[in-house]
# Entry
Amino acid sequence: MKVLVSGAGGMLGSAISAVFPSALPGVSLTLAFKSVFDITNIRSVSRILLSVKPDILVNCAAYTKVDKAEQEREVALMANAVGPGILANACRESGSKMIHVSTDYVFKGTRDGAYKEDDTVNPQSAYGATKLEGEKRVQAALPHQALIVRTSWLYGPGGPNFVKTIATKGKELGKLRVVDDQTGSPTFTRDLARGIARLIQADAIGIVNVTNSGSCTWFEFALEILRTAGLDHVEVTPVPTSEYPLPAKRPKNSVLDSAKYISLAGEPLRHWKVGLADYMSAGTDGL
Ligand SMILES: NC(=O)c1ccc[n+]([C@@H]2O[C@H](COP(=O)([O-])OP(=O)(O)OC[C@H]3O[C@@H](n4cnc5c(N)ncnc54)[C@H](OP(=O)(O)O)[C@@H]3O)[C@@H](O)[C@H]2O)c1
# Structure
């Protein structure tokens, strides 16, 4: 099976390159980095898709600066919606299936309980709105050949992420204030990559939520990071979002329901605390 990965240099893209060879025996991976494969460039996308002719394109390319997107909506729209639409049209030409990664931030976040795939979307931020537009463009171009994977609160080797920030700032400052009224499911990029491999094996299409099991607030996540890092002495104060204002509005609750993933993959992804311990014990990223 030939798999082409766009956005291969990002946090999820690099996890997919690390995990797919063992998770999908016999896979032939082509990694496409932004410098040579800009997903917004129609001509180069079409040329590369028609020459590689992958069975599956996994799109990990995105504009992920949630707060900056409020100022740079057009730039975010290009990477998060126009580019995925271009990729989906090129996949139609080359006969490839497409897996596109999306976000919990397509939801408003006021629901009690976890969001199912077909719950009403209502993004509260420019980032969330551009990601939702991307989902729509992909599904419109490839109604029977696209899988949209919605995930949340990613961390893993490579990118800047919450785990690194908390461990570094905790060590540096000895005390932190962390938001305690937003709940979600922290997800290790390598577990997500394994989950995507399972969905490939299940030939899934449509929208599927994929996150590590369990949920917590950012405050609870920070406590677990510090405990795992042996930094229990760091003083952490829970604060409401109102005391930590940021440009982009976030959902209060963006836990995603995993029932559909479990029915396709046969089992849930492991608990977020287990994924976190695995990431931190690997010694990558100086943790
Ligand atoms: N991070 C999270 O917490 C989170 C949560 C939920 C969902 N997601 C979704 O998960 C996916 C992967 O996220 P991630 O955290 O791995 O993101 P990331 O680390 O920011 O990686 C995104 C990659 O896409 C590249 N890129 C940007 N514009 C591009 C373009 N026009 N053409 C080709 N490549 C381009 C970026 O390159 P440059 O850096 O050079 O621009 C970067 O290498 C995204 O769809 C994201 O929306 C992320």
